[in-house]
Write a structure and sequence with these properties.
Elements: E1 2-10, H1 12-32, E2 38-47, E3 52-60, H2 63-70, H3 81-84, E4 89-90, E5 95-98
Antiparallel strand pairs: 1-3, 1-4, 1-5, 2-3
Length: 107
Amino acid sequence: MISRIWHGYTTFDHADAYEDLLKREIFVGIKSRKIEGYKGIQLLKRNLENEVEFITIMWFDSIDAVRIFAGEDYEKAVVPKEAQMLLSHFDKESQHYEVKSEDKPLI
C-alpha cells in the first residue's frame, strides 16, 4: 500500500470555500475516475497562526496506481486551477510512503 501526502495552505477567508471545493467537486471527480488500485482519500485541516493548513492523504495499492492518477511524473502535485485560486501556497510535489503497518481508526 502507498500513501500519497500533500499540503496546501489558504487564508482563513478562503478555508471554507476550499474545503467545500475539495469535498463537493475534486474528491468526487477522483472517485468517479474509478482508478484501479485507488483506495480513498483523507482530508486533514488545522488552523495555524496566520493561515489554514490542509493535508490530503491518498491511498493506493501501488506506485503504478499512483501513476494512473497523477501521470508518469507521479511526484508532481495534482492541483486543479480552481483550487490554486483559493490557495496561498502549496506543495509542488507530493510525498509517497510505503505503508508498513495499518490499524484502521475507529471512526
